[in-house]
Amino acid sequence: MNLLFVCTGNTCRSPMAEAIFRSKNIPGVNVKSAGVYADNYSMASLNTVQVLAEKGIAIHHQSQSLSEELMNWASLVLTMTAGHKQLVLNNFPAASHKVFTLTEYAGEKQIGDVIDPFGGSLEIYKETYHELTDLIDKLKVKLERDMS
User: Fold this and answer.
1) Would you call 116 a catalytic residue per the annotation?
2) What average pLDDT does the structure give for the chain?
3) 0.90 cut: is pTM over it?
4) What are phi and psi of 86, to 5 degrees?
5) Domain boundaries, the chain
6) Homologous superfamily of 2-147
7) HSE of 90 in the Cβ direction (CA atoms, 13 Å)?
């Protein structure tokens, strides 16, 4: 399985989600991230790197823009917001069967967007980390169940 996390600039939420997911060591799942408006080759934000480092999670990241090649690679595309999902579906309508918001796919009862920490304090990045960790733990359970 190939999992793609998508956010806006691919410097905060989606690389954080990718690093958290990678740290779970789920066999049989490859993971990448991209942004709907990303510049290629930007580093992850300093606060993303710091929050992950405090949790013992390494990140070696360069941003990339969402592309047809990545969409073809992905078995599952998980966006950080409903707006991202709509942008992905507008640009890649044939992929509608594999595009969900992270909250939707993780089985959250309420539909919601993952907090955008961009430009915010370290505390906001920590809130995003905790939200992503909770959602990814739920995602892990679902994927392990579906893959067994």
Assistant:
1) yes
2) 96
3) yes
4) -65, -40
5) 2-147
6) Response regulator (3.40.50.2300)
7) 7
